[in-house]
Amino acid sequence: MDAAAASAPTLADVVAVLDDLYPPSTAEGWDAVGLVAGDPAAEVRKVLFAVDPVAEVVDEALAWGADLVVAHHPLFLRGVHSVAATTFKGAVVHRLLAAGCALHVAHTNADAAPRGVADALADLVGVVDRRPLVAREADADDAERGIGRVGRLAEPVTLRAFAERVAAALPATAQGVRVAGDLDALVTTAAVVGGSGDSLFDAVRAAVADVYVTADLRHHPASELRERAAFEARTAGPAGSPTGRAAGTPFLVDVAHFASEWPWLAYAAEDLADRLRAHAGEGTVTTRVSTLATDPWTARVASPGR
């Protein structure tokens, strides 16, 4: 990924590659993706990848001399009437542009893409032979594109061992990893969704996954899912669950939102550089993955005796 003496692509060249990897048309209707700020004619030599376009990331980008920041989360998810530097978001835009650094966002379009957020998370926690948890209807010819991933684990492990694997693989956060379920139960299949995933509980149940890894799980949806699993385990009878689901599943593994999406950055950096190298006329770039922990939670105080 060393740009050395190679020619530099333009921002338009880089955006074209990013849009090919993560087509804007595959983003959710409410999302705001694509180029946020920057001159398409400007040259790009250094690209920083980060989860959040926050002030600390801007500090890192400018100190490194980045020409482009590719962020996962949108800076402006809703329409605004001003980008004056009198607001914290306006200040981000002004600082980037004053330094000649552009900003591009790949959000839900990166969630759904092959080698996107879901695939990166699935690889990290060991989900193989997988498919999208929710396939995109508009992409029926592309079996790899869709929300989340579901598949089997290379070998059955206890829920405790699986949760420990997740905790060891993801960036450390104050939250750590929360688990709902029998820690000694064996799990053989898993579903993953980077970011907030409790809206997809029905899809996880339909996929007959033993365990679900996602972030931002809320009390009521999680409680109802676990109550339903316990009820079905009690009423299944000697023949077992009519759905083929193991008793008491799906179990839940709840991680920090930032941690669940960070693994994708390395894939995005590698794929952008590879695509640009494959088209020699577009030049090459040096890429860097931010290791700043931009999770908003900074500490956790355990309950006494826990």
> Total number of β-strand segments?
11
CATH architecture of the largest domain: 3-Layer(aba) Sandwich
> Regions with pLDDT < 50 over 5+ consecutive residues?
none
For the termini, the CA-CA separation is 46 Å
CATH C-level of the largest domain:
Alpha Beta
Mean of residue pLDDT values: 92
Total helices: the number is: 10
Keywords: Metal-binding
Family: Belongs to the GTP cyclohydrolase I type 2/NIF3 family.
Subunit structure: Homohexamer.
InterPro entries: DUF34/NIF3, DUF34/NIF3_sf
What does this structure look like?
- It comes from Isoptericola hypogeus.
- This is GTP cyclohydrolase 1 type 2 homolog.
- Pfam families: DUF34_NIF3.
- Homohexamer.
- The structure is a single chain.
- The protein is an alpha/beta fold and 306 residues long.
- It folds into two domains: 126 residues, Udp-n-acetylmuramoylalanyl-d-glutamate--2,6- Diaminopimelate Ligase, Chain: A, domain 1, CATH 3.40.1390; 142 residues, Udp-n-acetylmuramoylalanyl-d-glutamate--2,6- Diaminopimelate Ligase, Chain: A, domain 1 (3-Layer(aba) Sandwich), CATH 3.40.1390.30.
- The protein is 33% helix and 22% strand.
- The protein contains ten helices and eleven strands.
- The strands form two sheets. A six-stranded mixed sheet has the order 5-6-8-9-10-7. A five-stranded mixed sheet has the order 1-4-3-2-11, with helices on both faces.
- α7 links the parallel β8 and β9.
- α1 packs across α10.
- The chain is globular, with a radius of gyration of 21 Å.
Keywords:
Udp-n-acetylmuramoylalanyl-d-glutamate--2,6- Diaminopimelate Ligase, Chain: A, domain 1, alpha/beta, globular, 306 residues, six-stranded mixed sheet
